[in-house]
Amino acid sequence: MRLKNSLILWVVAGLLFFARCANPVMPTGGPKDTLPPQIRFSHPENNSVNFQGRIVEITFNEFIRLEKINQQALISPPPQENPEYRIKGKTLQVRFKEDLKPLTTYTLFFGNAIVDLTESNPLTDFTFVFSTGPALDSMALRGQVAFAFDDKPAEEAFILLYRLEGDSVPADSLPFLRKPYYVARTNKQGYFRMGNLRNEPYKMYALEDKNSNFLYDKGGEAIAFSDSAVQPEWLKTSVLPKTADTTLQPADSLSSSNARLSAKEINRRDSIAYAERLFADSVRFAQISTHRLRLFNEVDSTQKLLRAELPSAGLLRFAFRYPAQKVEVEPLGEVPDSLHLLRSFNPAMDTLFWYFRDSILDSLHVTVRLDTLINDTLALSLKPKISSSSRRTRQKESLKALAFSTNVSGSKLDIGQPLRLSFAEPVVHYQMRDTNWIIHNGDTLLAQLHFVKEDSIGLKYLFDHPPFAPESDFRIRFPDSVFFGLSGRHNDTVDIRFKVPPLSDYGNFIISISPDVDTPFLIQLWQSKGEMISQRVIAGTKKLTYENLRPGKYTLKAVLDQNKNGRWDTGNLTKGLQPESVFFFEKEVEIRANWDLEEEWKIVSQTDKTNSENAEDSP
């Protein structure tokens, strides 16, 4: 009996051992794998002709798995029904469910769906090509995609090509309704290339396809389009180098000497062969033209009230989709004078603020009208929701002084700038008292302070004083109860100290700009933090001077203002409107203290298609 039990245990252990050997598992130890899977052989061979059958088999040098294959894979021309994808050992099978078309070049685009089992290294943008006829289509396209607003390269954007023959769908509706005939994807620099195309014109789009359905979902995705049909160019046949390319040999047919090669040596040979193929393709594609596409997000041009809310006591806020100067926002019926309603827009003119005093009203009915687009009646609460804890907080807040801020930063006020007070609520009463003084470099002047209102409702006040002299120290002091806010709060005693730096702490920037068209350009100077500090309009050649800039790095941007509305405008696919072009000065502008920097900038706007790029531009 013991012998029988021992025999059973040995049999079970053996079965488990062979079962483990028969299933791919992630190995442990050894150097980390950083290469994508490499093709050992396939049936048919990649770029082969006269294929007959329904099953494509591709065998790799390691075990693989598929990630989101149904979302990432695309076949050109598209079959009536998606094929089935299977993995058997190291082999991927693509099983078509219908007969393939005769005399047709098929392109199987796998995206990043094929990854190795151990480290999930993707075989990026893998494309497999074969023909059911005696020749492969040999036309090609290449190009670059960038975002229209800031000209930054669009990484992993999809390029979509649509045939113009035999499709009843209008060209501007194709990305909404049809999956593309050919597809490619951009690299980190925004470059793309497409080979094995038919010799015919195509409508070309670029798409930030966030859900990988190869369709344009308006609202959340950026899109670009070619103004006219694009014609691919003939691509010369590639001749690959012969050095150390073991990937062309079936793994099972390697010689005994090669079979004894270390994993490190095989990995090195795979790396060399992989790099050689990429380089050979880059050389071929560098000989054809580069098409440029600019991604943009479409906007709904319909004006809309986005929200109306009470963000804090004494303030109603109406936020609109677009500048709302023409929108009528009015209380419904009479309101008491004690409400003391004051109105103000933000600088973008798309948000309306209503400031008011606490009153006996708990709510207010408001009408919002704009032609026939907006016709709403809103019931808005004028009392914030107050819990027991927030009630105590509000009581403490009501005892606080009137809050304000200044444009003094780090105890310094930039040369040429006035002193500005910005209040949290409108100032309804201002009365300077005699006990005020200003000290300038140790000299005291009494009762010399005066402020003037800068805006219509008293949110900003400017110190009425000649320009502050450089290399000077100032101290401004005035008593409490000079400024009274809408809520009844008043300021505490104010003591402001600041220095005005010398001229030598700043630099000047002079640039001569020569556009190649007479259309107005918006010339924008941006700080490195992403803040625009200046916008000027030019038409034709112009010399611009920027004085007293803080030391630091700046960016110069030009917007081709085709509709002359003073701002950058996005595109519209259905109307065939491209986004307004933007251009950046080729160098970052570095301003140094006590230094004048002079530059010249020739803006070349006609750069939609060029042959100037070299092989390094292509992915």
Based on secondary structure, the structural category is mainly beta
The strand count comes to: 43
Tell me the overall shape: elongated
* CA radius of gyration: 35 Å
Q: Please indicate the percent range of residues in DSSP E strands (runs of 2 or more).
A: 35-45%
Give a short account of the largest sheet.
5 strands, mixed
Tally of contiguous helical segments: 6
Could you please describe the fold and organization of this structure?
- With 619 residues, this protein is mainly beta.
- Among the domains are: 105 residues, Immunoglobulin-like (Sandwich); 93 residues, Immunoglobulin-like; 102 residues, Immunoglobulin-like (Sandwich), CATH 2.60.40.3780; 112 residues, Sandwich (Immunoglobulin-like).
- 11% of the residues lie in helices and 36% in strands.
- It contains 6 helices and 43 strands.
- The strands form 12 sheets. Strands 10, 13, 16, 17 and 43 form a 5-stranded mixed beta sheet that branches. Strands 36, 37, 39, 40 and 41 form a 5-stranded antiparallel beta sheet that branches. Strands 1-2-6-5 form a 4-stranded antiparallel beta sheet, with no helix packed on it.
- β30 and β31 form a beta hairpin.
- The longest helix has 23 residues.
- It is elongated and about 100 Å long.
- The chain starts with a helix and ends in a 9-residue tail after the last strand.
- 23% of the residues are buried.
